[in-house]
């Protein structure tokens, strides 16, 4: 389904289809419940206009909240291009994870601080019903987002604290996401109970369901990372088993390799030495993808950079952190300038799956499973 987009403060705002559902429900709720109680003798059209205006101001507040996240991230060199608005709020679409616990906390806190500031700015006009509603909403938005349920802002602050404490991004994400799933279950249960008691807990229940799905997905991606033992040398693919390409091969030749093996990257050789990586997406957008003009892939090669490289003595957990923070599925293994092989996120995932098979209940109980050995 096509999504509506528009520019705002240098970002592209994407309106998810569920945003229209939220606009309709909130407008209807305000026009039939909130404003008739405040203005009982006013025309019905005024209720609907006020409800629609309040709804748009509500989402404008969310947009400013997300722009605060994006602004802090951009200031620190993480260029944000898109912000999405959906049924339960907004999402700042970071291209990669932040690099330090301190920056994680700064980016996370920027949104609630912005919402609290909006609420304070509206306080002098709080005698007006629309201003009062938006003021209260921003205060609630600030407080709600500080709940330590990952991936909400409070959960990200908690992850930053876990990260600084443990030194591991993956382990911090695992702990924060597991707590987030538990808080989400609590929100769902309170929301359901509130509906039976005629409380206004519908959105709490919806938020809990969505939070549970997201936090569960985040947890699955890093589950059992606290049990990873060994070094990169133990799980790397040796150089002699790594499929490489050369700079002289054509786009069409390498295309066939991508299609055959399903890899996202290929190391590129020059005179027997790895000089860079060739990315599938770069090749996919080359004109020769459709028509063979015998163009070599030389111009598409990304040179080997320090953040692509890992030492074979590096721990598996540190290498996993490095891949998560770079949003990279693999790292090149070098020792004293010599290419030894590749370590991939898939290899780490298989190792984590060994732990999962030994303790299938860990995600429910939070217990520590028996350690599984890594393949030698």
């Amino acid at each position: 389904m096509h999504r509506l987009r528009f520019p705002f403060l240098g970002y592209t705002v994407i309106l998810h289809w569920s945003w229209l559902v939220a606009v309709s429900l909130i407008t209807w709720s305000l026009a039939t419940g909130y404003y008739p109680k405040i203005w009982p003798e006013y025309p019905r059209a005024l209720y609907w206009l006020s409800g629609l205006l309040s709804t748009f101001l509500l989402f404008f507040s969310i947009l400013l909240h997300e722009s605060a996240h994006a602004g802090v991230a951009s200031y620190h060199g993480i260029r944000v291009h898109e912000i999405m608005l959906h049924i339960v709020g907004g999402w700042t679409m970071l291209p990669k994870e932040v690099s330090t616990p301190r920056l994680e906390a700064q980016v996370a806190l920027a949104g609630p601080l912005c919402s609290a500031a909006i609420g304070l700015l509206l306080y002098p006009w709080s005698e007006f019903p629309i201003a009062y509603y938006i003021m209260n909403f921003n205060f609630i938005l600030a407080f709600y987002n500080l709940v330590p349920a990952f991936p909400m802002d409070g959960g990200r602050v908690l992850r930053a604290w876990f990260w600084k404490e443990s030194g591991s991004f993956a382990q911090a994400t695992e702990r924060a996401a597991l707590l987030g799933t538990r808080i989400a279950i609590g929100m769902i249960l309170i929301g359901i109970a509130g509906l039976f008691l005629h409380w206004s807990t519908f959105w709490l229940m919806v938020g809990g369901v969505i939070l549970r799905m997201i936090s569960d997905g985040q947890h699955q991606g890093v589950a059992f990372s606290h049990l990873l033992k060994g070094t990169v040398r133990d799980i790397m693919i040796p150089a002699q088993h790594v499929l490489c390409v050369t700079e002289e091969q054509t786009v069409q030749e390498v295309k066939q390799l991508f299609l055959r093996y399903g890899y996202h990257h290929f190391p590129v050789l020059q005179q027997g030495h790895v000089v860079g990586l060739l990315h599938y997406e770069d090749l996919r957008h080359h004109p020769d993808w459709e028509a063979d003009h015998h163009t070599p892939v030389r111009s598409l090669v990304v040179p080997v950079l320090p953040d692509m490289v890992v030492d074979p003595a590096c721990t598996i957990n540190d290498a996993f952190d490095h891949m998560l923070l770079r949003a990279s599925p693999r790292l090149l293994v070098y020792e004293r300038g010599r290419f030894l092989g590749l370590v991939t996120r898939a290899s780490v995932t298989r190792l984590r799956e060994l732990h999962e098979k030994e303790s299938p209940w860990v995600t429910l109980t939070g217990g520590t499973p028996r350690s599984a050995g890594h393949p030698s």
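Confidence is low (pLDDT under 50) at residues 360-376. The chain has 13 helices and twelve strands.
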